[in-house]
Write a structure and sequence with these properties.
By secondary structure, the protein is mostly beta strands. The chain has one domain. The protein has three helices and eight strands; from the N terminus they run βαβββββαββα. Strands 2, 3, 4, 5, 6 and 7 form a six-stranded mixed sheet that branches. A two-stranded antiparallel ribbon has the order 1-8.
């Protein structure tokens, strides 16, 4: 599912024929890309800075993707701001008829084969953005999180809940030595 139109689409033959570097400097809204994620509170625009350079029979795409996001802290669920700079590097090449008939799942080569003349960078940019999302964002390094018993935020207040954990398999033995 692409959230953008055809801004990121290029004709591969034109890129290879011109033998010139093409610069993509776009700012795109990616809020729809994260609409089903509850951990993403708000996203800023995605800044795309890429250069498409023909190298022989391949087009090399390199650059950075930058985005500001407001995510839920993985421990206390408070909003936390994150700025991500994502390095982007891919190589694309028109697929020959022999390569199309071969198994495309072989990973011996890092070059992406394009079966038609249209190079659409959108799915690759979306994949990079989603793969480079922080796995467990924190509001601060020493975030104490939520109390598992009463749910209060331990960063704001301390609760009187017991922190003693008993293995449920041994819980019947806790009163064994009490008289």
């Amino acid at each position: 599912m692409s959230v953008w139109g055809d801004i990121m689409q290029f004709r591969l033959k034109d890129l290879l024929a011109k033998d010139q570097t093409v610069i993509v400097n776009e700012q795109l809204d990616v809020s729809k890309l994260f609409s089903n994620r509850q951990d993403v509170i708000k996203t800023g625009p995605l800044h795309i800075n890429l250069t498409l350079t023909p190298v022989g029979e391949e087009v090399e795409v390199k650059g950075n993707l930058e985005i500001d996001m407001e995510l839920a802290c993985s421990r206390c669920l408070e909003p936390t701001h994150t700025h991500s700079i994502i390095p982007f590097a891919e190589q694309f090449r028109p697929a020959s008829s022999e390569e199309i008939s071969e198994d495309e799942d072989e990973e011996e080569n890092d070059v992406v084969l394009i079966t038609d003349d249209r190079l659409d960078l959108t799915p690759y940019v979306e994949e990079y953005v989603q793969l480079f999302m922080p796995f467990a964002p924190l509001c601060k390094e020493d975030c104490e999180g939520l109390c598992p018993q009463c749910g209060s935020n331990r960063n704001e207040q301390s609760c009187q809940c017991s922190n003693e954990r008993i293995d449920p398999r041994l819980e019947a033995l806790k009163d064994f030595f009490k008289e």
